[in-house]
Design goal:
Elements: E1 2-8, H1 15-26, E2 30-32, H2 51-56, E3 59-60, H3 73-89, E4 95-97, H4 101-109, H5 119-127, H6 135-152, H7 154-157, H8 165-178, H9 182-188, E5 195-202, H10 206-222, H11 225-234, H12 253-256, H13 262-284, E6 291-293, H14 300-328
Parallel strand pairs: 1-4, 1-5, 2-3, 2-4, 5-6
Length: about 325
């Protein structure tokens, strides 16, 4: 199996900083597992790596599609797999970094094959959502749809934002078409075993994490988030597009249209991020991690030793199996 290191954790937990240290130590690069960093032109609101960081360490799967494009977990698994194969061919171990749990689950377990969804089900779900012109009514209906998803597939709902239109609809349409939750479809398929992951969880105290989230929202506005959004709108992207309709962007529509104060918009964005962080932590409770950090500081020497030991052990097992095969073949 191909070795990879994965850094996971709720938003604002320090994943990117640790991933940079790890990639530099391993002499490899970083594969982003973030469902918003894929979008071009969305840098500040997604806390994307800076130009200096991207120059220092190769970053992959950021800036790969425009904000009006859809991109799902299956696409991520295919694209990330190609990058991992390239590093493996060069004898290097890449670092995956991100908080989109479904991306990582799909990469490790394989793409879930589902029957085609009838067009009438897709259309009926999409028609339930009011136009983006009426942001309040649209979000209220999306909240109702999210609650419906929670009722039939709490596991899948727990890993996504209540503002994630694309995935909320996906979860509902799969259930309506098959009568089986999407998470159950995942369980029924045979997981692939392509990778040997060393999974690291950053799980800092909730109060400190929430404080960092609040501070991050303020810093994003100071760094030019509103100008970034205006630039996207001026480039003919709309609030209905997957990018601008995502967490950290859509909350500013009311302010930019003169219907809300900036203070309220920032507070709404912070609340949305805190809620998402809470759901991420719930998701991680069902995952087995090799190492968990419960603060914002990391003992890098211990971490490097653990990773080296893990992959050295895997290599010894591989050599042992090869020896067994050779003996069985009479070589």
């Amino acid at each position: 199996m191909i070795p990879i290191v994965i850094v996971e954790g709720p938003t604002a937990s320090g994943k990117s900083a640790l991933a940079l240290e790890l990639a530099q130590h391993l002499g490899s690069g970083i594969i982003s597992a973030d469902s918003r960093q894929i979008y071009r032109g969305m840098d500040i609101g997604t806390a994307k790596a800076t130009a200096e960081e991207q120059t220092r360490i190769p970053h992959h799967l950021i800036d790969i599609v425009n904000p009006d494009c859809s991109y799902d977990a299956g696409s991520f698994a295919r694209d990330a797999g190609k990058v991992i194969e390239d590093y493996h061919a060069r004898g290097l171990v890449p670092v995956l970094c991100g908080g989109t749990g479904m991306y990582i689950k799909t990469l490790l377990e394989g793409i879930c094959e589902l029957p085609p969804i009838p067009a009438e089900i897709k259309e009926a779900l999409r028609e339930r959502l009011p136009s983006a012109e009426d942001a309040e009514a649209r979000q209220a209906e999306l909240d109702r749809m999210y609650q419906e998803l929670q009722a039939v597939d709490a596991e899948f709902a727990g890993g996504i934002s209540n503002m994630d239109t694309q995935r909320i609809i996906r979860g509902l349409e799969v259930y309506q078409a098959t009568g089986i939750p999407l998470s159950e479809h995942w369980r029924r398929q045979s997981p692939q075993q392509l990778y040997k992951p060393f999974r690291i969880l950053l799980n800092p105290p909730r109060a400190e994490l929430y404080q960092r989230i609040n501070q991050r929202m303020d810093k994003m506005v100071e760094a030019g988030l509103l100008e970034e959004i205006k630039g996207l709108l001026a480039s003919s992207y709309t609030w209905d597009d997957p990018g601008l309709n995502s967490l950290g962007y859509k909350e500013y529509r009311g302010y930019l249209e003169g219907r809300q104060s900036l203070e309220d918009a920032v507070a709404m964005a912070a609340q949305g991020s805190r809620n998402y962080a809470k759901r991420q932590v719930t998701w991680y409770r069902k995952v087995d991690f090799d190492l968990t950090f419960t603060g914002f500081t990391f003992n890098l020497s211990v971490l490097y030793t653990r990773i080296s030991e893990e992959f050295a052990s895997a290599e010894r097992k591989k050599e042992y199996r090869n020896d067994d095969n050779s003996q069985n073949c009479g070589i």
